[in-house]
Records
---
Amino acid sequence: MRTPRLADPDAPARRGFFARAAALLVAPWCFAPFARAQDATSIETIVPAIRDFTKGAQVRKGKVKLDLPRLADNGNSVALKISVQSPMSQADFVRSVGLFSEKNPRPVIARFYFGPRAGKAEIASRIRLAGTQRVIAVAELSDGSFWSDTATVDVTLSACLDAS
Amino acid sequence: MMLSRIQMPQSAKRGDVIEIRIAIQHPMETGYRHDELGRAIPANVVNRMLVRYGGDEIFRAEMGTGIAANPYLAFFTIAQASGEVEFSWVDDTGETGFAKQTLTVEG
């Protein structure tokens, strides 16, 4: 009677299993940077309604700062602040700011119109969010360029879709 | 007539950038809620608010159901001359609201 030798025949398979398990664990961190790069380039694919706002113009990241809490306990009212870097002079000012939601049943939250008399391109309000999602602010400047910022909010209690 | 609360300075120095805050009492119905008999409550939101200062438009907001109930907006303007800051808004049913506040500009 031969005693089965554990080490020899099984070892390669077992080693392979451990190697694959380790790769699986590491994989999400490897791909994370790529996922983030994709987020930055394609806000129109997240919210197609942005195309109606920009009429197809290119949207660059920057100049706009969208302040939203990282975690919102109640999606029925989430405080937000949008500020746009601009001298707000007669020659160079922010015309309007569009606010878009990734997952709300109606993706266009609001549109705010400014002028050089605003002095400061900043707006604060409170919005509804139907679930954890990205919120995008797009600013239209007087020279016709568009700039954006994206914020991700984790929403514990979602708005809109429940009967409350 | 819809109730509103406006917070802004009563007086300012010429050239100062002042903050104006307004909250309007309105349910901002989404159209996704139902009453106790199961009937859908139609969507009704304050869809437009216009702010004039000395007769000129200084700020305008177009809002949808994504704005929370009792819409609150805070924005800025440059104090140029003494005058009235007038706020007017309208909801989906056509009901309008109006409020105004006097701003005294010194210097």
Note: Chain A touches chain B through 33 residues (CB under 8 Å).
---
Amino acid sequence: MISFPLSLILIPYGILVLLFILLAAYSVHNLVRYGATTNSSFVATFAFLAGAVFVMFFTWQGLRGTDWTQEVTFGGSFSINPTPEL
Amino acid sequence: MIDLDHLITKKPGEKIVFQMRSHWLLFAAELLLLVVLAVLPIGLYVVFQGVWPSLLIGTMSKPIMVLTTSAYYLMLWLFFITKFIDYYLDVYLVTSDRVLDVSQKGMFSRTVSELDLARVQDVTSEIKGVLRSLLNFGNVYIQTAAEKERFIFEDVKRPDEIRKRLLDLVEEDRKRQGDPIAGTIH
């Protein structure tokens, strides 16, 4: 039986967010360097950044109140929704 | 307008006469795919609500679902900006001295090809298909004397007009350089 704290799943997510930030920064840099003087470039950059903030905000909202100390258990049967003890 | 100084070393007095990129409809088609991919998790949410509702409210499954959905949308958003960069920085420039094809492939690959106006031998415009005929966009082929390979402006707006303007510029450039064959290009 394998079990690990739920907080462990934040590690791959954190890596992915870091990758996103790096690639997003590079993309915005590319747009600013080669074509920032137009409205469409500005609108696309703004929409991209606003969309990213929007996704992160809703992620934060969705994760509020999560107990990260819970254990995820893999065994004979995979359990991510343990039945509460009475 | 695209910043030419970051792409090439401009010759004295050289200026951008016009620039163009592929028709926005091609980018819109890719945006449509993005919209379909964005709606997909909403469809899955509706399905899960009916089939496996506990998955969406469980104390453990909910954060996993939220993080997975968030990761999906972040990747989708990167896909959007990559497609935009691919479209927006893929540009054809005509200066008073040469023709430039800046080809952006994804985030990390860019090819800049240039052709001196004096080497242009023949310019052909082509509008093929119903949609292209209706919206007046198509290809412009630039043939040079030395190379077999042609320079192609793909799916640009008003290709006939571009061909005429390009030929005028070639004529002007040849006259400026005192070329004896000026006036012979068609």
Note: Chain B touches chain A through 31 residues (CB under 8 Å).
